[in-house]
Design goal:
Layout: E1 2-4, H1 11-62, H2 69-90, H3 104-118, H4 120-129, H5 134-157, H6 162-194, H7 199-222, H8 225-235, H9 238-252, H10 268-327, E2 332-334, E3 343-346, E4 349-352, H11 359-403, H12 407-420, H13 425-439
Antiparallel strand pairs: 1-2, 3-4
């Protein structure tokens, strides 16, 4: 046994310092997370404007430059204004102290997003000159939007608070579903505009319908009740029924007008009906996004307020314990060797084999450890949803690279394999990635 009655060196004081530092780090982490949440808001606004410009671009090209010229000019101006706000917001991320180590991936994604935005003038020039097909224009805008959504993904992946993480996962998946709905709008406008949906165009449409439903399903698992209720209400809107009707026409008929597939006739009226209905649906989704962003900001701000209060309480409690120890120093003992929890005899007296060092401080330590474990457990579900999405995207990229497939074909292959093997899509994607890793660069 070793015994110490000297207060000249206090482990308890050091323990208290580390407890305070731990809670302070949590507050700082949440403050940084709030900054990322505000960044997500800027990205969301920009993505919405680019989605509108993409749809108008597809219709303008499909009409041979005869329709939607005014709307296209208006949407371009709105995209430019929103992009400027986004760019100015990013300047704050380059201030001293903002480039923390944990943000390296997020900052890298920002650089890629800015690179994508730098190519927007060139893409617009090709649209204006109509050197692109409607589908090629859609892909150009979609790649740019994809780079912006990747920033949102990194923000969600770095979240350390369960409530905020769940809110970010809900918003990310809803934004992804809305983006796929925007791509569906552009594809449908191209097909109805030319009067026919060939096999490739129809498959592209089916892919967007299927994958957006998966995104909305994950959103529903993590979203607050108010957003879920709003989403259910949207399903009963009149434009939603019209979208479903036109979807069935596009997916079941090679020619939406009934003409010969080899000589389809343009159908601008039906294309504009489709565009109007899908736009009404997407605008309604924007309102649900607003609810999700408001909920996200509220959760993040509430957690910061609560953690600051907890930090103050921990500091006060440790100060009280330190003050108490100065007035009433209690000897303590630490035992080695004997089984913990058993009593033993020493000098004819029964001695408990349990340290009596600073019970109050140790209570704080144990509560902090239990709380951190609880936070980690709650984060698991949200992080799993993000990891699955990342794995599916990586598996698609591998199939595109090694099999020469398009994105739609890669997804169809993964989905069909999952159905044939009666497995989840994420499991098949994980197996695909694992096989590629096993085989090396020449894999698959």
């Amino acid at each position: 046994m070793t015994q110490n009655t000297s207060p000249s060196f206090s482990f308890e004081e050091a323990i208290g310092d580390f407890l305070v530092a731990s809670r302070k780090c949590e507050v700082v982490s949440l403050e940084r997370l709030l900054e990322a949440v505000q960044l997500v808001g800027r990205i969301r606004a920009l993505v919405h404007q680019l989605q509108r410009e993409r749809g108008a671009s597809s219709l303008w090209i499909g009409s041979g430059g005869q329709r939607y010229a005014d709307e296209l000019a208006q949407y371009r101006a709105q995209s430019d204004t929103t992009a400027q706000v986004f760019r100015e917001h990013l300047d704050g991320w380059l201030e001293p102290g903002a480039c923390a180590y944990a943000r390296n991936r997020l900052l890298g994604r920002m650089a890629l997003a800015l690179h994508g935005l730098s190519g927007l003038p060139s893409l617009r020039a090709e649209v204006s000159e109509r050197t692109l097909s409607p589908m090629e224009a859609m892909r150009g805008f979609s790649e740019l939007i994809r780079s912006l959504l990747a920033v949102v993904f990194e923000a969600a992946d770095s979240a350390t608070d369960p409530e905020v993480s769940r809110a970010l996962v809900a918003l990310l998946n809803f934004m992804q579903g809305k983006e796929l709905a925007g791509q569906e709008r552009a594809i449908g406008a191209a097909g109805f505009g030319r009067g026919a949906f060939d096999g490739e165009l129809r498959q592209s449409l089916l892919h967007r319908i299927d994958t957006q439903e998966r995104s909305f399903r994950i959103f529903s698992e993590f979203a607050p009740e108010s957003a879920c209720a709003a989403w259910q209400g949207l399903q009963g809107a009149g434009f939603a029924a019209e979208v479903e009707r036109l979807r069935r026409q596009a997916c079941t008929q090679g020619d939406s007008r009934g003409d010969s597939r080899d000589d389809p006739l343009p159908d601008p009226a039906r294309a504009e009906t489709w565009f109007a209905c899908t736009t009404a649906r997407i605008d309604a989704m924007k309102e649900i996004e607003d609810l999700l962003e408001m909920h996200l900001n509220e959760r993040c701000s509430a957690r910061i307020t609560a953690d600051r209060a907890d930090l103050g309480a921990v500091r006060d409690r440790i100060a009280q314990l330190a003050e108490s120890e100065l007035h009433d120093s209690v000897p303590y003992a630490v035992f080695f060797g004997a089984p913990e929890g058993l009593d033993h005899e020493e000098d004819g007296e029964t001695v408990l084999n349990v340290p009596i060092v600073g019970h109050s401080v140790m209570d704080l330590v144990q509560r902090q450890a239990a709380r951190l474990q609880s936070v980690e457990d709650e984060l698991h579900a949200a992080r799993q949803a993000l990891a699955e999405r990342k794995t599916i995207e990586r598996a698609k990229a591998l199939l595109i690279q090694h099999r020469g497939l398009s994105e739609d074909q890669a997804y169809k292959l993964l989905r069909q394999t999952a159905m044939n093997q009666n497995r989840r899509l994420a499991e098949v994607a994980e197996a695909t990635v694992a096989m590629s890793d096993l085989l090396g660069k020449g894999g698959l």
